[in-house]
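Support request from a user on the community tier.

User writes: "When I paste my structure tokens into the form, the page sometimes reloads and wipes my input. The last time it worked, I copied everything first. Here is what I submitted, just in case something in the input itself triggers the reload:"
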């Protein structure tokens, strides 16, 4: 029997995923789950045929140029691939895959949590009780915004955006969206298409971001585009932090232009944005959109499916480069 391909798994994955990986690959696992520094990542990659990283490992053009010739595939445990320089990978002949579909439900759930947490002041209420400061009630106390009947704007009507739209409909919201092109009606399900970002923003009481981070979308939420939103709108971001100019967002939350924001992702991770964290009208989570037991297994299996296909000489189903 030929030797198993050598595989580096950069972070701690679920037991089920690690067991399957060990069955089919000669696996090196990052046992204590720390984030590899760039030099360490390069060093760890030197004697493997494949790497299974998360979005926490950055494969810049420099890192890719330092990979050994034997390393042929980066099988990501993420749908987002903004941590990999896809052009450099393609030029170097390194295959890159991701894990779409399997995290759409979990991420859409977190988008709903962020929306409701922001609209109904969830973090503020929780913090008040934990601090022993809940000593008052009145009809005027902690009044939030109801989402029922409001417009739910989806920026990026891909897989996650479509599920988020479905969930928002469950709250009686009217879905509007912008995408590079309209999606077929059986997926749009009556959602109103806007061919410009401006059109969508002007029609979003809640704006939820579901587009990938690319040079074109970096900073797409900024002073000028926030001004297009209806007054007292709510921003939800479960996609990538760098879609948002966080200083402009903090300004809009402080001035009351935005009622609130629900954020699962930040420009600096881990950590977040101190100015935003100091505000009351935000509901914040530490990038846990896909963090459910079911989805972590499914993401790991999907990454392994892509590796299996590659090493059996087939085209990996989720090849992005
Ligand atoms: C993704 O899959 O892109 C999530 O952000 C988790 O990495």
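"...and here is what came back when it finally went through:"
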């Amino acid at each position: 029997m030929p030797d198993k391909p050598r595989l580096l798994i950069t972070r701690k994955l679920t037991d089920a995923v690690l067991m399957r990986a060990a069955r089919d690959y000669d696996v090196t696992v990052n046992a204590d789950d720390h984030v590899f520094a760039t030099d360490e990542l390069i060093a760890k990659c030197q004697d493997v045929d494949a790497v299974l990283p998360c979005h926490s490992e950055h494969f810049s053009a420099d890192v890719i140029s330092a990979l050994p010739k034997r390393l042929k595939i980066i099988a990501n445990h993420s749908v987002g691939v903004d941590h990999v320089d896809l052009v450099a990978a393609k030029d170097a002949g390194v295959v890159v895959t991701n894990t779409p579909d399997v995290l759409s439900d979990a991420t859409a759930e977190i988008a709903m949590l962020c929306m409701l947490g922001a609209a109904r002041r969830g973090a503020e209420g929780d913090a008040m009780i934990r601090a022993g400061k809940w000593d008052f009630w009145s009809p005027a106390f902690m009044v939030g915004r109801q989402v029922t009947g409001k417009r739910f704007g989806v920026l990026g009507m891909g897989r996650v955006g479509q599920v988020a739209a479905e969930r928002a409909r469950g709250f009686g919201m009217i879905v509007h969206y912008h995408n590079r092109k309209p999606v077929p009606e059986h997926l749009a399900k009556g959602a109103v298409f806007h061919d410009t970002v401006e059109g969508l923003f002007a029609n979003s009481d809640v704006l939820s971001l579901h587009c990938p981070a690319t040079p074109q979308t970096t900073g797409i939420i900024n002073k000028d585009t926030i001004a297009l939103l209806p007054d007292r709108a709510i921003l939800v971001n479960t996609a990538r932090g760098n879609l948002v100019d966080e200083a402009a967002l903090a300004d809009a939350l402080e001035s009351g232009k935005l009622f609130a924001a629900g954020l699962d992702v930040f420009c600096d991770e881990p950590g977040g944005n101190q100015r935003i964290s100091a505000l009351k009208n935000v509901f914040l989570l530490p990038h846990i959109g896909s963090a459910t037991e079911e989805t972590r297994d499914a993401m790991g299996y999907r990454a392994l499916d892509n590796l299996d296909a590659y090493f059996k000489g087939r085209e990996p189903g989720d090849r992005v480069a």
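Agent notes: The reload is a front-end session timeout and is unrelated to the input. The mean pLDDT is 98. The chain is about 35% helix and 15% strand. Escalated to web team.
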